[in-house]
Amino acid sequence: MSKDIIDYAVEVEDLTVAYDAKPVLWEIDLKIPKGQLMAVVGPNGAGKTTLMKAMLGLLTPVTGAVRFMDKESKDIRFMKKHIGYVPQSGSVDWDFPATVFDVVLMGCYGKLGWIRRPRKADIELTYTVLKKVGMEDYALRQISQLSGGQQQRVFLARALAQEAEIYFMDEPFKGVDVQTEKAIILLLKEIKEQGKTVVVVHHDLQTVPDYFDWVTLINLRVVASGPVEEVFHEDNLQKTYKSTKTLLGSEV
Amino acid sequence: MTAILSLLNDYTFQTVALGSGLLGLISGVMGSFAVLRKQSLLGDGVSHSALPGVAIAFILLSSKNTEVLLLGALLSGLLATLFIITIVRHSRIKFDGALALVMSVFFGLGLVLLTYVQKIPNSNQAGLKRFIFGQASTLLSRDIFLMSICGFILLSLVVLFWKEFKLFTFDSDYAKSLGFSPKKLNLLLSLMIVLAIIIGLQTVGVILMSAMLITPAVAARQWTNKLWAMVFLSSCFGAVSGVVGTAASSMIPKLPTGPSIVVCISIIVIISILAAPGRGILHRMYRHRKNRLLYKLEGGQINVPTI
């Protein structure tokens, strides 16, 4: 696989982000290839979530640029409608007065833009994506009654309702049981088959080779980024986690 | 009965009740958003911060017109809100800290200016004190007109931006990722809450105004799990206590209107917190007892120490 002919979905150039004086990301250069399932891996506090938020434009970097490659348009406003986001489920108050349906419907708001109300097509789409994540029976359930895994699936469905080209997911497997994890990964692979790009913050090193095609190892800087078979080995992992212990079970 | 009937026909009562009801309705709607955004105390901060504006408006323009004084209150309330938002954004001080800071400075300044105003000849207090505790009986039909216009604007904005407010209140980061600027929405929503507070100052005053904003919303949240139902119920609770509070103060001599409205809404909130199905304390106690009983019937040990 020669890197020159790859179509890139996202290009990050010289990105530096700091909270107060301390840099959280330092001169990140990263290219995310189109149509790949990519894991972002790194220790706690390595800046994984920050990288994702910076790429989404949710925080202002010190320097650097994020470019979304699209033949039709490079306008960021246009692009926003093509980027799906699954935040960490702990980032919202689940006691908010809303049903599962209400939350998933929010995924359609981006396409609608200001003021316009959801149409029949949006409501149908909401039920379709709820079915995809296996939550159709919970549509009218109050969101405070959901388990952690169900909350994750609701957020996933909400992102699916965006019908985006690129998906950013911040730990979608957190608090999810083995069965649901398998179901979600099948769903992500299905999205990928449609030529879409999926970027996932991931914690379980053992499952990376099974789940993903591409991996980015970060710890303040990008340690390595590339196809899993080329990049994901003991050497790079020890560099990322600054550890001398063996991190991969039976690998390498 | 005849007392109530003659009261209902009384023009002053009609005006004041209409004003208080309107105020309850508007603050009920806006308060729902303030409570859900965990900014319940914003109302308290803004209303206290409006006081120096009232005094300054009087000193500069020497006018006793409610519109003029409320304009001063509006500007000063807005200034305080902007200060709070700026402090939160550009420092490590959290919302509650910034609020307490700004509120106390503004309210202190307001009291100082009020003392100064009393020394101005021909001020005869200018009725400025009514903004501290509120004096609903001073409501005139033109005040009601002003309130109606503000209320209409606020309700239209809520209907128009319903989807955006809901999204932003639930998950502001996600709203931003969809292209809805949280900065603009935050500013708009804060401005709307400020406006709702300002129009209530004359009726219930700076000290009790936050109760009008928060209490109906807290009560409404107990009864429903839907946002639209919460906003609707909250506005009903506000409006009902506005009217009932006014009636109570008209029938019982020397009972001030503002506080009696607040007492009325407080009774609603106490009932809601205790008795609402699902979220109410009584219902939860009942469920707990029932579960223990079921457990016992199934043969469980009831005296297992709980840690």
From TrEMBL, chain B:
Belongs to the ABC-3 integral membrane protein family. The chain crosses the membrane at residues 12-35, 41-61, 68-87, 99-118, 139-162, 187-215, 227-248, 260-282. One of its GO terms (cellular component) is ATP-binding cassette (ABC) transporter complex. It comes from the Bacteria. This is Metal ABC transporter permease. It comes from Candidatus Galacturonatibacter soehngenii. Keywords: Cell membrane, Membrane, Transmembrane, Transmembrane helix, Transport. PANTHER family: ABC-TRANSPORTER METAL-BINDING PROTEIN, METAL TRANSPORT SYSTEM MEMBRANE PROTEIN CT_069-RELATED. GO terms for biological process: cellular response to iron ion; response to zinc ion; transmembrane transport.
